[in-house]
Each structure stands twice: as structure tokens, then as C-alpha cells.
Specification:
This protein has 365 residues and is mostly helical. It is built from 13 helices and two strands. The protein has a two-stranded antiparallel ribbon with strand order 1-2. Helix 2 packs antiparallel against helix 7, helix 9 packs parallel to helix 11 and helix 11 packs across helix 13. The longest helix is centred in the middle third of the chain and has 35 residues.
Length: 365
């Protein structure tokens, strides 16, 4: 292919990622594709754009040239070539996701996705493994992996050292999505295994004690308790307050808890004040970081601030205590995924059946 035509093709693919879908099999729906395949395709396009855009008179044939000729930023010190090879080799050898982990295909790990990126990069140069690149190219690969793993601010800084900062940052975002999904999968697996251990051992009688006996957090279960508790029953109400005190409780769940306490005329007693005080303190300090769960409808609690203010007034009057502060930014619109079902749990009796893996499967990305 003539060089000009090749350059035009790669530039078009880089500037318009949708055109890259023409490289996929006919009729392949995007939603059914393995995220790892999409990542590999994106990387192939990015590398093609980087290498195909070089002039016909290549000053350094066989060089990868990921980095810009004159970097505008100070780069971190890199390890020796031998150390770079030692660090990157495990990524190339990372195990692929299992096609069937007992009940479903597991998502790709960050290590395996990085290994695919490195392998694709080597392949663009016809290199067999990490023994082929020289020290300068190894340095570029090491900095690429550092960028892909960096926090957003640091990644933006490192990207300026590359010939295509936009392509590098896009690739980092795609890798972050893969990593986030794998982390969520691992948390669901941990919750399932913790519930299985609780089921197979003698269990406490009360719902709160059973929840506390789980040795891994389960925010979907916390949400179920908050959504379904009967405010007229002290044990269920206290279980909901216990869930709301867990820092793994998602923000939408905390908002729903206060909404329900205010809307449904919860009975005030000596147990409510310290627990509600702790929840409001946690919220004010920004300790609830979970944002994946949403509400249905998403604006379910958006107008609840006046009701909660009246609840706090009533709580102060009935307990003759200082009034708790109104939460700031709590009553918002909560978009997100629906909580996963936890049918093995009942608010009367706690864990009533063995957990089923299907109830811990995340919806497709």
C-alpha cells in the first residue's frame, strides 16, 4: 500500500474510532464483544496511528517511537532494561479470564489487559518478546504501563511525553473501565463466598448479628435491608440503621434510609439518636464513596430535605438533645445500576437459604 494511503487510513481510524468497527466480523454486535477484544482493537488503531503517521524517511527504522522527540514534561526515572523486562514479563504471562468460572465468564484482569497491550505493541514491530526491544523502546513501554496505571492527574501529565497524548489517555480510560468491572466482580464473588460460609456454619439468631457475622461487605444486601425494612418493627429498623452505618453502604442507600425514616414516621427511641448521628457524621465527612447503585426512580429522594429536617427537629425535641445537622448534598438524583437481588435473605429470620451464584452476577457493561 502506498505510504500516503496508509497514513490516511490510520489517521482516519484514529480520528474516527467508529470506522474501526469495519474491521470486526460482519454482523458482530458491539454489546456482545469481549471488552478485551475492544481494548486490543483500540490499541491496534492507536499504535497504527502512531507508527503510520511517520514520514517515509524513517530516521530510526525498527524503533517504536512511542515517546515524543522533545518531551515537554520531566519524566520519572526508569529502571534498568533488565528490571523493566522483569517487571513487564509477568503481565505478558498473566492468565486469561476463565470462560466458565462455575457459573459465568469472569471479566479480564488489569494484568491480562496490560499484557495484551504490550503484546500488541511488540507485534507492531515484529518483535517476538521483550528481549528484542532496545533500552529506549523498553523505556517507552515502561512509561506506557506507568501512564495506564496512573491516577487521572498524573496520567494527563505523563501523556504529554507521548507522540499521541489523546490516544494514550483514551487507552487508559478503557483500561480503567476493565479494571473497575473486574474489581466489582471480585467484590461480588467475595460477598457470595462470605454468605456461603455463613450459611454453612451456626448462625446468630438476630438479623443484625447475622449481617455483622459476614466477613466481607455486601452493599447490595445493605440496600435490600434499607429498602424493605418495616419502620414499625424495632429490630428491622435497627438493622437498617446498622447497614447505613457501614462505610461500604452506597450513597444512594444512605439517602434512601433517611428518606424512609422521615417519610414513614419511625418511632424515636434511645437507639436512633446515636446511630443517626454517626450516619450524618459519616456523610458530612465524605466517608461514603460507593456510587454504583441507583434508585428507582432516580429522583426518589430529591424532595426529601424538608421531611428530614422535620425528623431531626422531632428527634431533638423527644430526646432533649442538640439538633443534628442537616445533611448537605444528600437528596440528589441517583442514577446507577439496580441493586442485585438477595432472595436468600429475609428481614424476618435473616439468611434463610443457601445463596445462589446467579444472584451475584453483575449486569452486562
Amino acid at each position: 500500500m502506498p505510504t500516503s494511503m496508509r497514513n490516511t487510513l490510520w489517521a482516519s481510524l484514529a480520528l474516527t474510532p467508529a470506522l474501526a468497527m469495519a474491521l470486526l466480523p460482519d454482523g458482530a454486535p458491539l454489546a456482545t464483544l469481549d471488552p478485551a477484544l475492544l481494548l486490543g482493537l483500540s490499541w491496534a488503531v492507536a499504535i497504527g496511528a502512531l507508527l503510520g503517521s511517520r514520514s517515509t524517511s524513517r530516521a530510526n527504522p525498527g524503533k517504536l517511537q512511542l515517546l515524543a522527540a522533545n518531551s515537554p514534561v520531566t519524566l520519572p526515572d526508569c529502571p534498568s532494561p533488565a528490571e523493566i523486562r522483569r517487571q513487564l514479563t509477568p503481565l505478558l504471562l498473566a492468565a486469561p479470564p476463565l470462560a466458565d468460572r462455575g457459573w459465568a465468564q469472569e471479566p479480564e484482569t488489569e494484568a491480562h489487559a496490560l499484557g495484551r497491550i504490550i503484546a500488541s505493541t511488540l507485534a507492531t514491530q515484529g518483535w517476538r518478546d521483550l528481549s528484542d526491544p532496545g533500552s529506549a523502546d523498553l523505556r517507552g513501554l515502561w512509561l506506557l504501563v506507568a501512564l495506564l496505571r496512573a491516577a487521572p492527574g498524573k496520567a494527563g501529565e505523563l501523556a504529554q511525553a507521548f507522540r499521541r497524548p489523546d490516544a494514550m489517555l483514551d487507552l487508559r480510560d478503557r483500561l480503567a473501565a476493565i479494571t473497575s468491572r473486574r474489581d466489582a466482580w471480585d467484590r461480588q464473588c467475595a460477598a457470595f463466598e462470605a454468605t456461603s460460609r455463613l450459611w454453612s456454619s451456626p448462625r446468630p439468631a438476630s438479623l443484625i448479628d447475622q449481617l455483622a457475622a459476614l466477613d466481607r461487605p455486601d452493599p447490595d444486601l445493605w440496600h435490600k435491608v434499607i429498602r424493605d425494612f418495616d419502620p414499625a418493627r424495632a429490630e428491622q429498623r435497627n438493622a437498617a440503621l446498622w447497614c447505613g452505618r457501614q462505610l461500604t453502604c452506597h450513597r444512594a442507600s444512605v439517602a434512601l434510609l433517611l428518606h424512609r425514616l422521615a417519610q414513614e414516621g419511625v418511632v424515636i427511641d434511645s437507639c436512633v439518636l446515636p446511630r443517626l448521628d454517626e450516619i450524618l457524621a459519616n456523610w458530612g465527612a465524605g466517608r461514603y464513596s460507593g456510587r454504583a447503585l441507583g434508585l428507582d426512580p432516580a429522583d426518589q429522594v430529591a424532595g426529601s430535605a424538608p421531611d428530614v429536617a422535620r425528623l431531626l427537629d422531632r428527634l431533638a425535641e423527644q430526646t432533649d438533645s442538640p439538633r443534628l445537622p442537616d445533611p448537605v448534598g444528600l437528596f440528589d438524583v441517583y442514577d446507577g445500576r439496580a441493586p442485585l437481588p438477595r432472595p436468600a435473605w429475609q428481614l424476618d429470620g435473616g439468611l434463610c437459604a443457601a445463596p445462589e451464584p446467579v444472584d451475584y452476577l453483575l449486569p452486562p457493561a
